[in-house]
Design brief:
It is a single chain. The chain is α/β, with parallel strands linked by helices and 190 residues long. The protein has six helices and twelve strands. The strands form three sheets. It has a seven-stranded mixed beta sheet with strand order 2-1-3-4-12-11-10. The structure holds glutamine (GLN).
């Protein structure tokens, strides 16, 4: 059976994740409601704007069922804004933005600079033979990773790809470099 993966589609860069997952053979559902969420086996939280996504999670009624599924151990990949949503602690966030606390990291929003601070750089990823071209766009920086967190890649010594149990987060956008290896790894993880 094809794995059934949801991509949270309230806001932000969900389409590129959906594309790459489909090309890898997954069945992909765009998630905008609790009913849609209930049908998937795993989830991607894309990049975008974490404050807006947080508000939309509330107004769509997704916040509670999402928190419940994630606490139950559903596999999740959070990129950029998605990483911010999953973190235990957010610096430079809005006071009312939700942080789901699914992975024990502290992230600083826009840590690499503001609007124009986008760049691409090769990072070495544990378990991958060749470097991964990582695209950073107003990316969150990991300021602290707890002892349970496995750091799978760093840039300038700062963690940029982290895993803790069923939760994987990236500061960068693995969906934008045309390299399916991290999505492939995610599909193999559940
Ligand atoms: N800076 C954005 C935020 O704080 C994240 C940027 C991104 O997802 N590309 O939500």
């Amino acid at each position: 059976m094809k794995p059934r993966v949801g991509v949270l589609a309230l806001q932000g860069g969900f389409a590129a994740h959906a594309d790459i997952l489909q090309r890898l053979g997954a069945r992909v559902d765009e998630i905008r409601s609790a009913e849609q969420l209930a049908a998937v086996d795993a989830l991607v939280l894309p990049g975008g704007e974490s404050t807006t996504m947080s508000m939309l999670l509330e107004s769509s009624g997704l916040l509670e069922p999402l928190t419940e599924r994630l606490n139950d151990g559903m596999a999740v990949l959070g990129t950029c804004a998605g990483m911010i949503l999953l973190a235990a602690e957010v610096i430079d966030g809005r006071a009312d933005q939700h942080c789901l606390g699914l992975i024990d990291i502290t992230v600083r929003r826009n840590a690499y600079g503001s609007q124009i601070a986008s760049f691409e750089t090769d990072v070495a990823v544990d378990g991958l033979d060749e470097p991964f071209a990582a695209v950073f766009i107003r990316a969150p920086g990991v300021e602290r990773a707890g002892p349970e967190v496995e750091v799978q890649a760093r840039h300038d010594r700062r963690p940029v790809l982290c895993r803790s149990g069923s939760v994987t987060v990236a500061s960068f956008h693995p969906e934008l470099s045309g390299d399916p290896r991290l999505h492939q790894r995610f599909l193999e993880s559940f």
